[in-house]
Amino acid sequence: MADRGETSLRREIIATALAMSRSGLSHGTSGNVSARWKSGMLITPTGMAYDRLKPADIVFMDAKGRPAAGRKPSSEWRFHLSAYQARQDAAAIVHCHSRHATALACTRRSIPAFHYMVAVAGGDDIPLAGYATFGTDELARHVAKALAGRKACLMANHGQIATGLSLAKALALAEEVEQLAAQYILALTIGGVKVLPKAEMTRVLKRFATYGQQPEARSRKP
Known about the structure:
alpha+beta, 7 strands, globular
């Protein structure tokens, strides 16, 4: 039986999946959401409408990809596990097929530093993970490589992935990636996109490290 902490996290995963769908980031049962839990993760099940999910439908998988009894996990569970391995700081992952990010991914484009907010993904671009059939180990390897130095990436002919220190932050990053993708596509239609130099993006990244309301040291204690 799940403890209160696990049940609460299962409910938060469902709420995040519903918010992802209602915001237009994904339609129907496309996309998936997970959160790191103990030595493994909790992830949305495959092929179930988000508005029908119950906490018991969320699947626990251990670090070796073995699911607990119950529902079948998302077919994309492999790249979720690989993403957690690539980004030890990630506590949650949102994967979606948002319109503009997917359009760029289908033309095999990454998002360069056309705007300083690209740094929100942790670097001077939002990279493109190579293509492989969904649900495969090969795709998981591509995702791990793309996320090794970034918090988000596009997936060739597929969609986007965003990670975060919480489910809310992962969802917020997915929304920001989609906004940046839309802006970049618009800029491309005008032509002559000017990409910011690496030196400027390095300055932006340093500013981002102390931007906003930073938690005090005492609040970081477990």
